[in-house]
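Researcher: Next sequence.
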Amino acid sequence: MNSRLTLNLGARYEFATPQWEAENRLSNFDPVNLKLMRASDGGVYDRALVRPDRNNFAPRIGLAFTLTPRTVIRSGYGISYIHFNRLGGENLLGYNGPNIVNLTISQVPTSAACVGDQYRNCFRTTQMGYPNGLVSPANFSTATTRTNYTPADYRTSYVQSWHLTIQREIAKELVFDIAYVGNRSVGLMTLGDYNQAVPNQPGQHLPIATRRPIQGFDFIQISWGGGFSVYHGMQMKLEKRYSNGLYLLNSFTWSKVIDNAAGHLEAFNGDNSRVNFRDLRNEKALGSYNQPVNNTSTVVWEVPYGRGRKHRASVNGLVNAAFGGWRLTGINTMTSGQPINISYAAPSAFQVSTAPTYRPNYIGGSLYSSDRSVGNYFNKAAVSAPSVATPNDPSRPFGNLGRNVARSEAMFNFDGAAHKEFPLPWEATRIEFRAEFFNLFNTTNLGAAQGNVLANNYGTITGLSSPARQIQFALKFAF
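Model: Next structure:
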């Protein structure tokens, strides 16, 4: 635009087809006719059983404005699309029968005993073993097998990202940045049980299979665009650029993440990528990635001693080999703890699916004990599992406690290293030595406490969020 203002405008169009398989060994659930449909030769939809999304337009805008010779303002906005979702095998239509028999059997001890090779609508003991033909394609049945289902009109997930940054040179080689950074994820692929059963009524103990709305099918795992995520953060950075053998960097973030499900392979501390399909609204909460405060400090120091350095540049070779030419580095990290999703293990009468997380009821008081000790981190009187409070009323299996309402202890860690090069008499040859110290001060960072209120060790911390001190040495010959 001019010498002080730079403006970048752009647009991108992206197209990616749904996945298909060379031999058409895919199948998908048909919600209209309530049956499995098989892929066949033909167009993209015939082979993938999901229609391609052709509306993926991604605008971009960025600007930089020089406010003063030492102050620059930058901002930008863009949309990015997520064309490939890796949820293990959970969203793969090739993982359906009859090509793959992924058998699931839900049993209730009060059911009649199975006889012979019978295994449906009865209770089969461990001693009876597996019945003949259990996983044979000829005996495949959607009534005992999980079905993966992706709606045919699935739209591509996308992320909106934006920022506003002010950068100021506050002294020679010292720069300060402060920024507001945000993003909003829309239509994220999320998992749920499309065939989630209705709850048992008071006094009922019917098995899940008889309570499912679509009879003839067991767990229909839908992978659909029901997820969302919103991030807002303040980011600050102070950087002393490298000069006179010293580099310093401190990065600080204060942020908040809200979503309604964790990523399937990134669910921590009791959180879940599978939601309560009948009540998605109450899954909205702080995300399992939400660690509000993060501060990382980095230092690189060329020790000013020895040949080529500020002090004792003419020191003899033996002293220089031992004490000269060292480079010391350090990284100090301080972060908030991770969210903990408090839950309970619902007995079979209280279950409406094996997919979602069942949370207890909040009674009152602090969720934490007075001392937050390793053996008693939570206040056991603050919550109650519905199966304990009302054992004969399974009609309300989901308690009123929110998702991810607790948090583990903060984490502190310092990593250090020492580096040195030893030149050899041959041209361009040298030996490089490195000593690296992870968690140098051997700080104990406690992990998350057990969050299942019915577990015998509820509120007990049994692990660490970071390992103990580790030291490693390395030699490298460069020629």
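Model: Helices lie at 44-48, 208-211, 317-323, 386-389. The radius of gyration is 29 Å.
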